[in-house]
Amino acid sequence: MIEFAGAKVRVEGGRTILDATATLRERRVSVIGANGSGKSTLLRLINGLLVPSAGSVSVFGRDTRTAGRAVRRAVGFVFTDPLSQLVMPTGREDVELSLRTRKLPPAERRRQAGDVLRRFGVDHLADRSIYDLSGGERQILALAVVLAVEPRILVADEPTTLLDLRNDARVRALIAGLEQQVVFTTHNLDFALEADRTLVVDAGAVVFDGAPADAVAHYRALVGGPVHGP
Amino acid sequence: MRGFGSTMGLYEPGHGFLYRTPLPVKAAGSLACAGVVLAWRSPSVTGVALLLTLAVLMVGAHRSPARILRMLLPAAPVLVILALYQVWLQGWAAAFGVVGGIIACLLAARALTLTTPVQDILDGVVRLAGPFRVLGAQPERFALALSVMLRSIPYLAGLFVDVRDAAKARGLDRDPRVAVTPLVIGAVAYAHRTGEALAARGLGDHDDGSGDDDIDGVDIDGGDGDIDGGGAGSGDGSRVRT
């Protein structure tokens, strides 16, 4: 459960770029809105990458300001560009880097890394340079790297934006199959409709919060696009 | 962004006795090579060191001379400039002693990184830094710093080539400011993104060993109903006052 209680983010000069109050309990929550509307800021509040200037954000009752480490352990974060996410030269090494936080013996860490890569169907890419992988392969690897430590919640910031149709479908299927609660931003309204609940963010405020179909219609009306159809 | 991971040379799976040699032995060998070359700056010692490192790579890692030469390509511009400078300043013999020594050290270090998975190197660094725990240091952070460094070198090399190509495409490759400014900005942006990625993954967080880092007591599959399984959203489906 994620709770935004009057969470405000202010930038230099005191301007408020986000002001949110919401409690997210659903298994799949999508966040939609125009570029620069505050979607990513909202997501960054969830795992403590950003702490609110006022109000609070809590995850399973733990405040991101005072229990940042615990919250980061519970919340995995996937960036839009997997190259920003992957720190090591190969996928296997990156998964092992994630597992280092568990302080396992090297042999056990290696075995678990292999298991994770197999589970996500990328074990055949494990020893290839991350630069030699396609965008879709990198994004699935980035998901594997984050999910290797089994976070309770996955937060994904436009995880399909850089992908072609085939890889878009792969990543969406993978996310759909996760047992974790997933909160994601997207510009793909079909993807947004797959959620159980959708927030529409505009100019730093949650301007609509409800069923995905209604939220998409609201968003289309907001930006002046066609109201009918995805 | 193109990658230079393989060119700059990290671990590559393979066969040979080097792959089976324990990390401390390889590290000691690499250090010994550097020590000998620095202590006896003579062309003959350099020649022996070069031959030995070449032989070790060929026999111990099954690498051909052509592949070994390719490993030196990223450092070639600096080595050529250094060689020319040494020839001009001190003559051929001294130039061979200095540049050949550097090449021997590079190959010795490459023999280690080529045949040792990065995670094994990081484990070695953690063990090496273990005694510093008594001073409050966290050995895992040493390893994390090393891993970030290993990742940054090929990234920045790739960024340099991209920036140079972009300048060339616009006919601005003769203006050093055009090459350097985006490189510096790109490097700072990369450092920021890497820091954010590490923070997002909880890597580098201080471990106080208190065990107060877990969020427990919540049944993700329903249970007390903390996470709803589906259906319509629980938002009120209307405009939200913020």
TrEMBL record, chain B:
GO cellular component, one term: plasma membrane
Pfam families: CbiQ
Stretches with biased composition (Acidic residues): 210-227
Regions crossing the membrane: 44-61, 68-88, 94-112
Protein name as annotated: Energy-coupling factor transporter transmembrane protein EcfT
Keywords, in A-Z order: Membrane, Transmembrane, Transmembrane helix
Compartments where located: Membrane
Highest taxon above the source species: Bacteria
Membrane topology: Multi-pass membrane protein
Region (Disordered): 201-242
